[in-house]
TrEMBL record:
Belongs to the GSP E family. Residues 168-280 form the Bacterial type II secretion system protein E domain. This is Flp pilus assembly complex ATPase component TadA. It comes from Candidatus Enterousia avicola. InterPro entries: P-loop_NTPase, T2SS/T4SS_dom, T4SS_GSP_E_ATPase. It comes from the Bacteria.
């Protein structure tokens, strides 16, 4: 048994060699691979947090083999098509490993049969103290990225303030009012250096930021063990700067609401509703479908504190923003 464990470690060490130069340096906080041939490095204290490097050695087959090997060594289930497509592990040196492969991840049109995405967190960090976190005796705590408590009178300014301060935004409207198109335009206003994770049941969102991963959880064609609860765990481990939640349904509403409570800025999603008030109510009702213990009135009140709603309406060829709350 000991000999088998040693052999497994030798195999893993050999397989990790192409990646070690990226995640082991002390100045690296984390690496992310969204598709073959490219690695993103998140650097400690850098002005531009994510930096991309080409790495042809990181082929799709290499990445799939790596995930399979780690799953086998750590006795984790891994079957992207019919079982569990996600693997979590702690690599030698206490590096946290998160990976997904198969039809639930699609970077772009190259991922015809499904893609691969993974994150490895480093363990090295600069020397720190409470003062590095601006915690000092007798001094007030800092407010980091505080959101505006007063909403501007002008609806355009209200929307831009929400985008700039990272407030969650719910885009509401009937079918064909242009919700996805509006959301795609909003993404062009987000920092191009942001890391964007989308969660959809079919690929619709167009992300201009280069550092992005598209996670797919189909309502009709799901064949493996991936579900919305597992999706939540995965998304928060992939270090997103922006989360796009796709369209709210009874299946995903409670998980999307939980994502809102994870502390991430720039959370955007859409819903079918005829006005802003109805949008809050529809979101709450979809949550209650799977989480009936919530109090509906309290839930709606909490939503109104946290979420901005942009209402879109249509009359023939005319499409317009009719509410920004």
């Amino acid at each position: 048994m000991i000999k088998l464990a040693l052999m497994a470690n030798v195999v893993l060490d050999s397989l990790l060699k192409p990646l070690e130069e990226f995640y082991k340096p002390s100045f690296v906080e984390e690496i992310a691979i969204n598709h073959e041939g490219e690695v993103w490095m998140r650097l400690h204290g850098a002005r531009v947090p994510w930096v991309a490097y080409n790495a042809e050695v990181l082929s799709k087959q290499y990445l799939i083999d790596l995930i399979h090997t780690i799953a086998n060594i750590y006795e984790r289930p891994f079957d992207p098509v019919h079982g569990m497509p996600v693997v979590y592990a702690t690599l030698p040196g206490n590096h946290r490993f998160t990976a997904i492969a198969g039809p639930n991840v699609q970077y772009d049109e190259r991922d015809i049969t499904g893609g691969v995405a993974l994150n490895i967190r480093g363990t090295s960090a600069p020397e720190t103290s409470f003062e590095n976190y601006h915690l000092k005796r007798g001094e007030k705590l800092l407010k980091v990225k505080p959101r505006e408590s007063v909403r501007p009178d002008d609806p355009y300014d209200r929307l831009m303030t929400a985008i700039n301060d990272g407030s969650p935004i719910l885009i509401s409207g009937a079918t064909a009012t242009g919700k996805t198109t509006f959301l795609n335009h909003m993404l062009t206003l987000i920092d191009k250096n942001s890391r964007v994770i989308t969660v959809e049941d079919a690929r619709e969102i167009s992300v201009p930021q280069a550092n992005h991963v598209h996670l797919i959880l189909s309502r009709t064609e799901q064949t493996n063990d991936f579900n919305y609860a597992r999706l939540l765990d995965l998304v928060v481990r992939m270090t997103p700067d922006v989360i796009i939640g796709g369209e709210i349904s009874t299946d995903n509403a409670s998980v999307l609401w939980e994502m809102l409570g994870t502390g991430h800025d720039h959370f955007y999603t859409t819903i079918h509703a005829e006005n802003a008030e109805a949008a809050y109510a529809a979101f709450a009702d979809r949550i209650l479908h799977t989480q009936p213990a919530y109090d509906r009135s309290d839930l709606i009140a909490e939503m109104k504190k946290k979420i901005r709603v942009v209402q879109l309406s249509r009359d023939g060829a005319l499409r317009a923003v009719t509410e920004v709350v």
